[in-house]
């Protein structure tokens, strides 16, 4: 609401949409603030992701701080509801070190410590790994 109409060419918000209490107001503001043919890039957590389904309440990306939970279909529907043209919806690949991945796992601390020591001993603690851990993106146009 603090921006002029038709002000932005691109609006990006990453892992924010889950925390917005008034999605209606937010998406209307985005729509009004975008120039004609402006683009939105949004990244959200995917409630249908493999890790979310397996880990359920213990999944680090699905937690009680989120007001909203999305999957590819619901994310697309909400943007279509506000008359955005959905260009693409898909998974996000996250790239982090093995140490980071194990740090994020919901396993006991003693096991994490053992794994960290093993990774260090094997000299692979900083090896970067790509995983589709459970985030999705949407590109939409005004």
Quick summary:
By secondary structure, the protein is an alpha+beta fold.
Q: What name does the CATH topology of the domain at 8-93 and 133-141 carry?
A: Rossmann fold
Q: Mind telling me the CATH superfamily name of the domain at 8-93 and 133-141?
A: Vaccinia Virus protein VP39
Question: What portion of residues belong to β-strands?
Answer: 25-35%
In which order are the strands of the major sheet placed? 1-2-4-3
Radius of gyration: 18 Å
List the uncertain runs.
none
DSSP helical segment count: 5
* Mean pLDDT reading: 92
Shape descriptor = elongated
- Tell how many strands the DSSP assignment holds: 4
Please identify, by name, the CATH architecture of the domain at 8-93 and 133-141.
3-Layer(aba) Sandwich
Helix share bin: 25-40%
Could you give a short account of the major beta sheet? 4 strands, mixed
Q: In sequence order, what are the helices and strands, one letter per element?
A: EHEHHEHHE
Q: Separation of termini?
A: 17 Å
Counting copies of identical and different chains, the oligomeric state is single chain
Please identify the top-level CATH class of the domain at 8-93 and 133-141.
Answer: Alpha Beta
**Class by SSE composition:** alpha+beta
Provide an overview of this structure.
- With 142 residues, the protein is an alpha+beta fold.
- It has a domain at 8-93 and 133-141: Vaccinia Virus protein VP39 (Rossmann fold, 3-Layer(aba) Sandwich), CATH 3.40.50.
- It is built from five helices and four strands, in the order βαβααβααβ.
- The chain has helices at 23-33, 50-55, 72-81, 98-104, 109-121; strands spanning 8-14, 34-45, 85-97, 128-141.
- It has a four-stranded mixed β-sheet with strand order 1-2-4-3.
- α1 links the parallel β1 (8-14) and β2.
- α4 (98-104) runs antiparallel to α5.
- The longest helix has 13 residues, at 109-121.
- The chain is elongated, with a radius of gyration of 18 Å.
- It starts with 7 loop residues before the first strand and ends with a strand.
- The model has no long low-confidence stretch (mean pLDDT 92).
């Amino acid at each position: 609401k603090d921006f002029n109409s038709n002000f932005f060419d691109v609006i990006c918000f990453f892992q924010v949409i889950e925390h917005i209490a008034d999605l209606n107001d937010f998406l209307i503001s985005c729509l009004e603030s975008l120039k004609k043919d402006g683009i939105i890039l949004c990244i959200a957590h995917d409630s249908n992701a493999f890790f979310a389904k397996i880990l359920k309440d213990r999944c680090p990306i699905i937690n009680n701080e989120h007001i909203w939970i999305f999957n590819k279909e619901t994310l697309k529907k909400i943007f279509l509801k506000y008359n955005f043209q959905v260009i693409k919806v898909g998974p996000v690949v996250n790239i982090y070190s093995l140490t980071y991945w194990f740090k994020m796992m919901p396993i006991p601390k003693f096991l994490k410590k053992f794994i960290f020591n093993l990774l260090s001993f094997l000299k692979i603690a900083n090896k970067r790994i790509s995983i589709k851990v459970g985030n999705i993106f949407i590109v939409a146009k005004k």
